[in-house]
């Protein structure tokens, strides 16, 4: 995935996404002792960066494949992103969701035009249901993070950030399935000026941290984290990019995530998910290492359940 | 207070305030059936529009008076705004607060450099303590809303909004002490193109609504509203402006305020106070009246207690 592919991806998706604002805060800069630039993907369409990859993946399908629709299994932001991206492009989106997924999430997917297909709440059932739709409808399966076109799409957030702030020394991104951090690392390599990418990951689901140590893709035995978007594991498409282009991963404790989220809410007056507070929590944890540096932080999304806040 | 005074005020305070962003939301526009433009004073310095009036009022003092400092009695946003404005201008700010004010509010004032003076929790004690400081220190008393320079300062938010969106048909602002809505009405008169100003006010503290009907300044016997910034009453400086330039006031119920606040948080991913959700609640309540219109909404502030949310 060379520089030209990332440029072409960005041009392709521009009509369908927001170039989200970059916010700063004097009080947070003082707190950290560095200059922070928050790329606000919580203001992206449907409230998360996942819109970028979903749009790109659909646009790269042939005319014939687009007519048949797309399918994924997800109960998170990618389900909504694929639904809205598909709707924006006049394509059908089949979303396989576990029957015990919250009603509000099913309604959100339907609100964006997605066709919800319920299944038993096991990975096997979700995969079987997805395969059935691929066979029956001829729909194309799209993975939320382990897909080259999705990775490129997610990388356009960092590309935009570096276009407006070319002199960043670091960009921090949360690490979940690996699509965002891999795309961010590609963008920093191609468009940064000696810009290093650092991942933030909860201790409770530190599969990516361990994967970088062992050299193979590790999994989590438990996923007891508030950062519900980061419970997934890396894949064979994004892991090599992460190995090559991500400087390191900083792990953070659950209380550090909640504290970072609270600071963003209180000081910046914006709503972000626990998952995206993880990147800022990583900056805070090792702030002495980054004194006086210019640091970009990808605020990945803002879809939270206001009835279930950690404050 | 003519147009030239408002222009001069804006030029005077520009170095000390943010020209806050104007945000839009497709889903909210669809919900309302109109085009809404939210002027985000929740992103203003210290988190509320009150910074504007405080800066202007201090800048209009003589050199001699500035040396003596300023004093106000408030436990709300104006206490913090006056503290930060004074700090930015190298002036002392004495803030009289009731002894039972939340510790977090006292600390916020001190964090912005204000000198907190505690008194008994009665209006009489607050006024007596303020007078004592005026006499002892020679400090100038500044009122949060019933002061010409404060009114002009608050009006600059609407002036900025109309500079970026000159064709608004309506601007909605919440009505508390009357400084914001009066300043907004002046700005709409001077810089709008047939732009009407409408106030939003809780039924529970509808003193301004009743004042417009009776022609005299009415008070509230009880103040049982979640919109804690709107419990105050109009004054003799802002009431005549409101009578002349505000089209009308729409009253809203408490559950409408919480609903409007929730929509702003969920759809726009920004944090606003209950008080400023009142203006949007007023749009929602009578949305049929405003179909297809271009509507500005002043989101007045974002200082909320995350430990005490209505969701």
Task: Describe what this molecule looks like in 3D.
- The structure is a homodimer of 311-residue chains.
- Chain A has 2 domains: 3-48 and 151-299, Rossmann fold (3-Layer(aba) Sandwich); 51-141, Rossmann fold, CATH 3.40.50.
- In chain A, 46% of the residues lie in helices and 16% in strands.
- The first copy, chain A, has 13 helices and 10 strands.
- Chain A has helices at residues 3-13, 26-32, 50-59, 63-68, 77-88, 103-111, 123-137, 148-164, 179-191, 207-214, 239-245, 254-268, 274-285, and strands at residues 22-23, 35-40, 70-73, 93-98, 115-119, 140-141, 170-174, 196-202, 246-252, 294-299.
- In chain A, the strands form 2 sheets. The first copy, chain A, has a 6-stranded mixed sheet, with helices on both faces.
- The longest helix of chain A is centred in the middle third of the chain and has 17 residues, at 148-164.
- Chains A and B meet through helix 12 of A and helix 12 of B.
SSE map:
2 copies of one chain form a homodimer.
Chain A: H1 3-13, E1 22-23, H2 26-32, E2 35-40, H3 50-59, H4 63-68, E3 70-73, H5 77-88, E4 93-98, H6 103-111, E5 115-119, H7 123-137, E6 140-141, H8 148-164, E7 170-174, H9 179-191, E8 196-202, H10 207-214, H11 239-245, E9 246-252, H12 254-268, H13 274-285, E10 294-299
Helix pairs in contact in A: 1-3, 1-8, 3-5, 3-8, 5-6, 8-9, 9-11, 12-13
């Amino acid at each position: 995935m060379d520089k030209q592919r990332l440029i072409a991806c960005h041009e392709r998706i521009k009509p369908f996404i927001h170039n989200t604002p970059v916010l700063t805060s004097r009080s947070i800069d003082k707190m950290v002792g560095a200059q922070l630039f928050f790329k606000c993907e919580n203001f992206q369409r449907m409230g998360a960066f996942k819109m970028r990859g979903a749009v790109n993946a659909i646009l790269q399908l042939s005319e014939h494949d687009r007519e048949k629709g797309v399918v994924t299994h997800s109960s998170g932001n990618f389900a909504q992103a694929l639904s809205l991206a598909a709707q924006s492009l006049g394509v059908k989106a089949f979303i396989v969701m576990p029957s015990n997924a919250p009603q509000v999430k099913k309604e959100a997917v339907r609100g964006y035009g997605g066709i919800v297909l319920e299944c038993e709440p096991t990975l096997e059932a979700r995969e079987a249901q997805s395969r059935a739709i691929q066979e029956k409808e001829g729909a194309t399966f799209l993975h939320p993070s382990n897909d080259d076109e999705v990775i490129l799409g997610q990388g356009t957030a960092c590309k935009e950030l570096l276009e407006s702030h070319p002199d960043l020394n670091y960009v921090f991104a949360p690490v979940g399935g690996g699509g965002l951090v891999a795309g961010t690392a590609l963008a920093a390599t191609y468009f940064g000026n000696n810009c290093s990418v650092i991942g933030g990951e909860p201790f409770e689901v530190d599969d990516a941290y361990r994967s970088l140590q062992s050299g193979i893709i590790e999994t989590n035995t438990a996923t007891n984290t508030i950062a519900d978007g980061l419970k997934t594991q890396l894949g064979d498409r994004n892991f090599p990019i992460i190995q090559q282009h991500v400087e390191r991963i900083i792990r953070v404790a659950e209380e550090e995530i909640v504290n970072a989220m609270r600071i963003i809410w209180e000081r910046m007056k914006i709503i972000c998910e626990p998952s995206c507070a993880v990147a800022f929590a990583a900056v805070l944890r090792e702030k002495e290492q980054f004194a006086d540096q210019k640091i970009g932080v990808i605020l990945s999304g803002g879809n939270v359940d206001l009835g279930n806040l950690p404050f």
